[in-house]
Amino acid sequence: MDKAALATALGSPAAFGQSQFAFMRGNAFEAKVKADGGTELLRLLYERLGGPGEAPHEVRVPDLAAAGPEGRAARTALALREATAAQGWTLLDHPLLALEVAGSPAYLEPDAVVVHPEGTWTVVEIKSFPMIDGSADAAKVGAAARQSAVYVLALERIAAMTEGAEVGHRVLLVCPKDFSNLPTASVVDVRKQRAVTRRQLTRLTRIEDIAATLPEDATFDPGCSPQELHRAVDAVGAAYAPECLAACELAFHCRERSRARGAVEALGRSVRGELGGLTTVGAVLAAAAGKEGDPADPTVAALRRAAALRAEALEGRAVCH
Amino acid sequence: MSLITTLARLEAVESGRAQPLTTVRHRHLTGRPLVLVPLATAGEAGAPLGALVGTDREAPRLLAVAQPRDRELRFAFLAELAEAVLPHIESYAGVVEPAERSQIDPETGKKTKVEVELCTDAAQLIVPSRAGIDFVRLLGRSMRFRRTAEDDPDTPYPAPARVPLLGRWLTHYAERARVPGSSLLLATTDLLNRHWATGQSSLEDQHLGALLAWIAPSDGGSGAEAALRAELERDREGQLLCPPAGPATDPAFDNRLLAPAIEAYDRARTALAAAEDGLAADALLAELARAERQIRSLLAKVALPTWDAVWRGLDLLAGLPEGARAEDRWTRDRWSFTAHRDRVLAGEPPQPRRDDAVTAAQKLASREAAQAQLDAQEALDDPLVLAGRRLAGEAFVGEVTGVEMAYSESKRPSPRPLVTVRTDEHPHLGGRTKVYRSLDGKPQTAEFVSGTPAEEGGLLLVLRITDRMGRSKEPAPGSVPEPGDRTVWTLFEHDPRGGPKLPDPEETPWTHGGPPGAAVERAERPDPVTAEDLL
Amino acid sequence: MSSTRATFDPGAEATRATDAILHDTLRGSSRGVVVDSPPGAGKSTLVVRAALELAAAGRPLMVIAQTNAQVDDLVVRLAEKEPGLPVGRLHSNDSDPYDTVLDGLENVRKSAKATDLAGLDIVISTAAKWAHVKNVEPWGHAIVDEAYQMRSDALLAVAGLFERALFVGDPGQLDPFSIVGADQWAGLSYDPSASAVSTLLAHNPELPQHRLPVSWRLPASAAPLVSDAFYPYTPFRSGTAHGERRLAFAVPSDGSGPDRVLDEAAESGWGLLELPARHTPRTDPEAVRAVARTVRRLLDRGGAATSERSPHPVPVTADRVAVGTAHRDQAAAVRAALAELGVTGVAVDTANRLQGREFDVTVVLHPLSGRPDATAFHLETGRLCVLASRHRHACVVVCREGVAELLDEHPSTEPVQLGVTVKFPDGWDANHSVLAHLAEHRVRWRP
């Protein structure tokens, strides 16, 4: 589903898009890292992850081209098995992995997977944000780790059927070094993200279950009228929080709805923490003003105390000194 | 988020206007701040695209990099930035007053007072947003290890003369910005968010345009609607009317306007380089100048709204009276400014890439102390901030209902009067919790003795006052509150102290890797440069 | 491991571990020895024993603990074991700097000045106080207690005072924290906001590391869950077998939720009293009353605990019961509710303050109960670990329905700092696994 097109049709276009400068740099960097048959990439990998096994001299880079995602995924699985049996260094450039997500197959494309001579498979993520003096933007590294954890899980399904294969839980993150275009790398332990993702995958609502809760005539076709689309989108339960703005094309639409409802979450998840069962701006303010709510409810009592203290301070009664 | 802040946000939603979070301004603003609005190239670390800089809101200086991936042009930009920033800093570095500092005499090991210079004021730097502070840090890091031709005649791609020095100053400012309550380098969004609550989330509050729209909508209408327009409204070319405050630019700007302009510039340069005779070169040079002007005008257009927004923000802040203790924190900033000036004058090397163990621990300890101090000072300076602490049970206001004289059990009994205070609040008192009140600007300590429900509602708290009553047997006049007095007590100290002294770096213990030694020298080496500096 | 399962002798395993630790401490050549101790694995016993053996060997010893309560507790334990041993209690200049119990101990000298205590076999104080001690001859040996709760910068301030040290602590409990950001040092081996042990091991990876393998506190019903959920890579076992610990009530159940959950907990070691789903304030009055009511019924029904400690059942009195919460205001609300029901003497505190303590039965107000959001604070692995590992017999958790769904809405999206050794497990994941286990011992109740 094209959520960006849907958002535009709903009248809340997303401010998304990537600068072509960033895009070009990202591509140029990945090409530089993988240049020369992956020599530099394998050198970094061996330097950071070490043995067992000899330092890579010869690196096989199998052709993974095939027709369609299923074909490419099958080709990747075959290449992984062959590489493991060959007991040498193999670089899989943009392999395609299949993973069942919410009951539907999803295809994933890691930047690279390296097969070590002794059978370990290592996920490689190439990012264009810099590592400056050995550290990098933690939010971006976190996102890369979660992304890699999904690849690890997908690879584990293939490894389970491959003699002598084991998927490394330490992935290699390759980034530009300092202010240069030279690659540097860091090992990221993704055991935690893997455990979390695995649990999330088992807990994700199946897509058919979501579809089953929708009205039969629901449509997400951007060509439909805004009214029809609004109805359909609103039928899908969505818990809007401001964090969505950075992640989802539909966030501006959801925010508009959330604000219209007077939902307090529109101000941030943390706002709700102390508001107990009160979920709308109107209800909170009415409770604070003493117009609604049970004074025995600790939330209501605290709100009234807060309102009184705030009013007292704003009246400028000199209480200090 | 405290409930009182939440309430302010909800009031903002309802009223459509931002609501005050403070009654005073808690950050010092100098009369002549240097405003810097930097722009960066997407996807490239520390690659400046342009900047507006200056102390006169009517006359910003526009700096631009026509081709951000060209090292020479980048150096030219940085040299120009140094010329815009360093004279401002130096104008403060030269004006000093005598001051005293306690220092440990290396021979006797005793604390002695030494007379030193303290800059009477410090240069203040204002950027639009927190990302701007990070960019200042990044610029500082990218410049301070550079070598100039004077440093090393053999260095490849020498940096312009004052660039490494600017790197050191920007590094110092960015590092100081991490100290709670400091005001050397401030982000306008942080300043505004400290003083007003909007009806949107703190995430959305990072958008300077939207934030200002909530506080002072330009058309005087609904702040909420003005904020939405600031976030989303675009002109017919698809460009945001209120561009992001940077340093990142809007992708639509990059792709639709900037990229074609840079391409035109590159074409003109290539053509100029291939020019076969002087006449053709003149024409091509004019073409190149035109292409460069086009880029400059694009950057000016996209940065000017932010420039104006920063100044409007400063106007709003200047409208608040400064909190009494903000000056005290600014004095610390002046000490920090002076200390860096002295390090530069003494010819010390640039700040290392990473702190050694002792420096890191010292910085953390001093920042924790600064945070505790800031929290205390803001509450003492501002009844609205204090209200939040009262709600949290960390302070209370009450009326004195009785005073009973008592004395300590020692050879020379000192006064320990028991003061009964009635309050409607719920302070977290227990055991012999210490509480403090401000007496002539200095903290007086008492300890909690007992609490019982009062007949007329609320609590009767008995507190034993333990200090600041003078040396004689009877408390000094005015040092003990009297019945009917309205008193303000805090459970937090008013002037929290820092931690213990740490070992010198040369005495770093084995648990922390021993003395840093050679690692220090390594940390100051210049970054390796590659022939190809761009991607 | 599986082959030894049938013949696992907890006493022998624990002795072997202790002997190795003492050997490395007294006779080893390393400057440091690190001991990981899961909840109730005999850490205090080990510290006292190591201290006495070092003293007996004529090695001047300093002991560094993290809180004054821990220091006083250690002094008392040492005096109980070896009343004649000269012990120094170095204390602060504050009023009431130490527990007055120490005044009754003949060979314990107290002073705020380290020089006053010079020459005593053992000198004990907090890390904060030790940090102010300057210009003294270093001690040959130190024991650092609760080393995982000590910050790296606190160790930096005191490490010059000793030549060698034994570091003991529980890696699964709450991490130390700082009130300001310390991200700029993340990934550095000496990150001042990290735990003392992580810095120590980053610089001295060759140091011998031991693990106490047996929890004497946690019953057989609890050790596997706590070990799997919070110590997945360093598992431990219970010192007692199923059936060795029993909890029984003289008064039969009245059929109410609290009684049914108590019966479930007595039978299985765990009980989940689940209240209807609802978003509530932190001091959810219904949940607070349910906690208080459960405690009241536990005491009223004449609970008696049978364990390896005594041949006869021992009454579960108020001092053997604790209530754990995430926040201070919740603890205050529970205290008030207990007072209303006439219950006194039950420890009610936050996870931070219950660290290191032990009870027969605990009643826990689940940190996520009724919450509309799950913050990093509420998801912190150590918090849940502390709350779920204070009991010798049974743990009752009171919680609103819907926490699993809440967790699903707040997927773990933690930032990752390069170079930082990953601490296991993830709070989100650990919360889910504890919840899944508790669900098997669920008693639904509509108060």
From TrEMBL, chain B:
Superkingdom assignment? Bacteria
Region Disordered: start-end pairs? 407-431, 471-535
What is the recorded name of this protein? Uncharacterized protein
Species of the source: Streptomyces fulvorobeus
TrEMBL record, chain C:
Q: Does the keyword Manganese apply?
A: no
Q: Which InterPro entries match?
A: Coronavir_polyprotein_1ab, DNA2/NAM7-like_C, P-loop_NTPase
Output one GO MF annotation.
ATP binding
Q: Which UniProt keywords apply?
A: ATP-binding, Helicase, Hydrolase, Nucleotide-binding
Provide the transmembrane region boundaries.
Answer: none
DNA2/NAM7 helicase-like C-terminal domain location is 287-400
- Statement: the UniProt record of this protein carries the keyword tRNA processing: no
Output this protein's name.
Helicase
